[in-house]
Write a sequence for this structure.
């Protein structure tokens, strides 16, 4: 049974065994009854712990005009930095809802923490840590005026190993992903913020996730058989892709039949940003809120009700779900305006809302540590002896990025706002626009990775690089350090007792990784190992990273997957 505590679904993009992702064929089947018959409109009843919230919501809905109800079903304008905003209705005491991205913490704002990524937490196998991380993430969102946190990420599960967003999810094991996802939802919502699980359903790759702006090709269809669907994907923003040739945000089989009917989901379904592909059809299929706005609803939805295309009872159901969520987490008791701590532009004068909490420091530390995985350790090369005289450091991923500041224009997808300070910034906008003609880099050459890129990333308030940590420890132990972070074939001092090579594996929303290794980093590691008998490799990897190119080198004594520690 899907946990009813999850109050918002954003199109859970999941896929795995038995699921086929493919480009649209020429003879595409557009009639979904070919796959699973006509899906009737399904409006589940609300019971159990939601009963009181639903009763309050229905009472409030009864006081609204049709136009007011329709206004709640699509995003509206806001003067804040919320990623999305459901407009308020002041005359009845509803002040609106602020939606914010938060894979690693609240995005596009200041004075927040950068928490370990989903892949990092998944590597810890620690439910208690997952809950604590999510609770403090939710608490920071609450302090900033966020009502709905656009996470956690249940999918992608990682069926496509090069998937650009695999790092946002917990694991490609559906059981582990479900267990940690449950803890993440509980933690966020115990902090008083709605958890919005995403992406529903079967969005396992970034390539062709959107209809191509250049070629005009439709979004990819993730074709899933019924057995696979039930075994792997019943955990939940409807997604960009199509599922069984029907766009996920207008797929009545998934939204009405599976999610709201079979699973009894009582929250509301919100589209991924720009994923709404139809007007009346998506309303009838189970989409409740279109983000970030909707040219297909608004006056058109009002007209659809008035001419009988959409029953007003369906609009009532959509709005009841939105308001019931608001009541369920007691957000009607909030005294601050939604998004009050999220400045629209951090370069403009704005009130400082420091959302960080000193009590979260142990969780941040434990989360960073526990996601490291030691995959090779020959002759107990690690841990180091405390009396080393000389250690040499190599590789582009040792240092902090050269720049960490918001852009004056503060575009929604500026480099700082989507966590790509370490990456090749020329790739950013083309990826999000669906132009896949570029070959994207497999590494982030400008410094250490602490998260992947895209809407799941956030800006950190402070940063401690591996190099910073080595300097601090070397001072304490009296160890000398040599380093070269520029050379591909560096000189290695023969008296070095250990050589540490730091590389990374970059991934981002908007495109898929070009490979699961990169020749440059492999050759760098081998070049150092040829000259140093005790070479330790540390990889900050935003996904699967093959190590066969250097694993068997006799001088590579240890390898660590450092993942994305925040």
């Amino acid at each position: 049974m899907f946990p009813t505590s999850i109050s918002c679904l954003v199109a859970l993009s999941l896929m795995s065994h038995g699921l086929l992702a493919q480009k649209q064929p020429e003879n595409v089947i557009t009639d979904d009854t070919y796959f699973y018959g006509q899906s009737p409109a399904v409006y589940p009843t609300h019971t159990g712990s939601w009963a009181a919230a639903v009763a309050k919501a229905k009472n409030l809905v009864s006081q609204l005009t049709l136009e007011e109800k329709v206004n709640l079903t699509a995003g509206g304008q806001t003067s804040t930095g919320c990623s999305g905003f459901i407009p308020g209705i002041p005359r009845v005491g509803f002040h609106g809802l602020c939606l914010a991205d938060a894979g690693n913490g609240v995005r596009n704002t200041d004075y927040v923490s950068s928490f370990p990524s989903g892949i990092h937490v998944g590597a810890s196998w620690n439910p208690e840590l997952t809950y604590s991380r999510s609770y403090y993430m939710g608490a920071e969102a609450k302090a900033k005026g966020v009502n709905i946190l656009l996470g956690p990420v249940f999918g992608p599960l990682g069926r496509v190993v090069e998937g650009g967003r695999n790092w946002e999810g917990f694991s490609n094991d559906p059981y582990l992903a479900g267990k940690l996802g449950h803890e993440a939802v509980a933690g966020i919502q115990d902090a008083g913020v709605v958890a919005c699980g995403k992406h529903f359903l079967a969005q396992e790759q970034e390539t062709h996730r959107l209809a191509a702006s250049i070629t005009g090709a439709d979004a990819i269809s993730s074709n899933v058989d019924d057995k696979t669907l039930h075994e792997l994907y019943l955990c939940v923003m409807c997604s960009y892709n199509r599922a069984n040739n029907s766009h996920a945000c207008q797929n009545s089989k998934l939204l009405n039949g599976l999610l709201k009917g079979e699973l009894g989901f009582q929250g509301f379904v919100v589209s991924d940003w720009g994923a709404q592909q139809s007007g009346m059809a998506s309303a009838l299929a189970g989409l409740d809120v279109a983000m970030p706005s909707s040219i297909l609803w608004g006056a058109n939805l009002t007209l659809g009700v008035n001419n009988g295309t959409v029953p007003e009872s369906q609009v009532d159901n959509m709005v009841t779900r939105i308001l019931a969520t608001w009541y369920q987490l007691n957000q009607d008791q909030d005294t601050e305006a939604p998004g009050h701590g999220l400045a629209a532009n951090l370069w403009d004068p704005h009130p400082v809302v420091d959302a960080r909490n000193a009590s979260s420091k142990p969780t941040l530390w434990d989360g960073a540590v526990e996601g490291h995985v030691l995959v090779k350790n020959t002759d107990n090369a690690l841990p180091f002896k405390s009396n080393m005289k000389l250690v040499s450091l190599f590789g582009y991923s040792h240092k902090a990025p050269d720049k960490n500041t918001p852009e004056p224009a503060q575009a929604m997808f500026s480099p700082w706002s989507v966590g790509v300070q370490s990456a090749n910034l020329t790739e950013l906008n083309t990826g999000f626009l669906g132009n896949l003609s570029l070959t994207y880099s497999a590494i982030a050459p400008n410094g250490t990775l602490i998260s992947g890129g895209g809407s799941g990333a956030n800006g950190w308030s402070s940063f401690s690089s591996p190099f910073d940590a080595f300097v601090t420890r070397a001072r304490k132990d009296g160890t000398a350090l040599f380093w070269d972070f520029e050379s591909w074939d560096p000189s290695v001092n023969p008296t070095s007792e250990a050589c540490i090579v730091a590389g990374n594996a970059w991934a981002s929303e908007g495109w898929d990784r070009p490979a699961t290794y990169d020749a440059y980093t492999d050759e760098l590691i081998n070049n150092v190992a040829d000259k140093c008998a005790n070479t330790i490799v540390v990889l900050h990897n935003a996904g699967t990273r093959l190590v066969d190119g250097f694993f068997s080198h006799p001088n590579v004594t240890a390898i660590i997957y450092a993942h994305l520690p925040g």
Q: What stands out?
A: The domain at 8-19+37-333 is CATH 3.20.20.300 (TIM Barrel). The two ends are 32 Å apart (CA to CA).
